[in-house]
Design brief:
By secondary structure, this protein is α/β, with parallel strands linked by helices. It folds into two domains: 2-248; 272-367, Alpha-Beta Plaits (2-Layer Sandwich), CATH 3.30.70.20. The protein is 35% helix and 21% strand. The chain contains 15 helices and 15 strands. The protein has helices spanning 10-24, 27-30, 57-69, 86-95, 98-105, 126-129, 149-152, 161-168, 172-186, 222-232, 241-248, 281-286, 307-311, 336-340, 352-365; strands at residues 2-4, 36-41, 73-76, 108-109, 115-118, 121-124, 131-135, 137-141, 145-147, 190-201, 208-219, 293-297, 317-320, 323-326, 346-350. Strands 1, 2, 3, 4, 7, 8, 9, 10 and 11 form a nine-stranded mixed sheet that branches. A two-stranded antiparallel sheet has the order 5-6. The structure holds iron/sulfur cluster (SF4) (2 copies).
Amino acid sequence: MLLKIENYQRDILYQRIDEALDKYFPLESFFSLGDKILLKPNLLMSARAEEAITTHPAFVFSVAKIFKERGYNMFLADSPGGFLDNDTLRQVYKETGMLNLSQELNVRLLYPKKVFVRGGISLCWWAKDFKIVNLPKLKTHEIMVLTLATKNLYGCISGKQKSFLHCQYPKAEDFARILLWLYEELKPPLNIIDGIISLEGNGPARKGKPKGLGLVGLSNDALALDYAISNLLSLDLKKNPLLNLASQKGLLSSIELISDFSHPIKDFQFPSTHFTYYLPSFLAVLVKRLLRFFPGINPEECIRCLRCIEACPAQAISLKGGAMVFDYRRCIFCMCCAELCPQGAVSLRKSPFLKILEWIFKNGKSKDYK
Ligand code: SF4
Ligand code: SF4
C-alpha cells in the first residue's frame, strides 16, 4: 500500500499509518502481546534527520507509539556500517534521534552483544530472538540502484561482516543473492518505508540529495513493497538487480497494490552509476575495466578521521604523507568508503571512456536513460 503523506508531522503520521494498519494489516494478525518486537530503522551512519540518510525519528516515533498503545513490548536496533562498538552505536542512536524517542516512549535500544551464524553469515542476536518491524528509508544506492525494504535487512548482519560480504560479492547481481537470502531467512512480518523525504542521486549517504516524495509504503512483504516503489519511480525492472533476480525466481507474482498515487513519478534521479545498466550487455562485458567508476577523495573535505580505512574490506586505502591514498589494484569498488565517510569527502569518479559513453547515451542514444 502506498500512502501520500507530505510531511513529518507526528500526529498526522500516527493517524494515517494507524488507519492503514487497522484496515489492511491489523497488528494482531502478525504479532501477539507476548512477542518481543524490534523496530529496525535504517541507521546507516551518524546523521541528522534533515539529511534524509536515516529513517526519520518522527516516522519511527509514530510507528512505535501505535505499537506501544496496543500494549506491545518494543525494542529498537540497527547495525550501522563499519566497526560496531557500543560507543559508536550510542552516538548513532543519539544523532539520528532514536535515543530521544526511546526515552519518550520507553522503547529499549539494543546493542551488539552476540551474533548467531546461519548459512555461514553472522547475524545480530536480535534478528533471531525478535519479530522485526522493518522501517527502511527510501534512498538511491550506487551499487544496487535503490535501497528499500529488502536492502534494509542487510543491517541485520553483524558489524564488519557486512564489508567482508561486499568483498566476497562485489557484483550487484551476486549481492542481490545475499539480499534475497536475508529476505527468505528473516521475513519481517511488517514493512513500513519512509519515503516522505527520500534521497536521490548518488545515495545512500552524504553524496545523495534529499528529495520530497511524500510517500509512505506499507506491506507484509518486503519484496512486494520494493516492487511497488520501483514501479512508482518509473524504474525498469531489469535495471533493478534485486528485483530482476526476484522476478527470475518467481518471487514477484500475485502482488496487489492500493495506492494514493495516480501517476508514476518521472523525475526521480538515480545514481550516476545507473547509466551502465543501459549499455548493451555485450559492450559492458567487453570493456568492463574501462567502464569503471572508482572512489576518489576531495582533500579539502577530508578530516583524516580514518573511518574509510576501517571500513574498507579490501585494505585498499592508506594514509601517506598526510593524505588518503587508494590502491586501485586492491579496490573492489564496493563504495563502503563513500557510504561511511562522515564528511561526504569520497565521491565516485568516472573513467574517461565511461564519461564519453555517458555523454553519447545522454544525448539521445537511449530514450529511457534519465
Ligand atoms: S572517512 Fe572521509 S573524512 Fe575520514 S579519512 Fe576517509 S575520506 Fe577523510
Ligand atoms: S577503497 Fe572504497 S570502494 Fe575500494 S574496496 Fe575500499 S571501501 Fe570499497
